[in-house]
Amino acid sequence: MGIPWLTATLQPLADVRLLQDEAVVIDGPALAYHILHVCRINGVVQPSYRLVAQTTLAWLDELSSHNVVVAAIYFDGHLPESKLEIRMERSMRNSARIGRLFFDNPHGCRRDQIAAVGGQNHGLNQLTSANVDAFRAGVPSVKALADPSFFVPAIVEALRCSDRYRSVVRLGPGEADTVCARHVAKHGGLVLTSDSDLLVYDLGAGEVAFFRDIYRGAESAIMCSSFAPRSISNKLGLLGSTGILRVAYELQCAPHATLPQITRACERPVANMPKYLELHKRYLHDEDEQEGDFRDLGHQLLPRLSKLDPRLSELVVELYSSVIPRHSNSVARIFLPVLIENMDRGSAWQQSTPIRRLAYSLLEIDSPGRSMSILEYRRVQSVTQKGRLIETASATEIGQYIDEVLEVMERMKDLDSVPGRYYWPLVGLALDIGECQKQGKQSHAWHMLQQRYKQSVAWSNSVSWGVVHLFAQVQATLYSFRMLRQVMSIVRKGAAKYKLPSNLKQLWPAVRHFPPLTGFPEMDDILGLLLESREAGFMREFAELMCFDMVSSPDVDKAAKGASERSTDGGMDENVQNLATKHDKWNKANKFGVLSAD
Question: Is residue 288 one of the residues assigned to a domain?
Answer without folding.
Answer: no
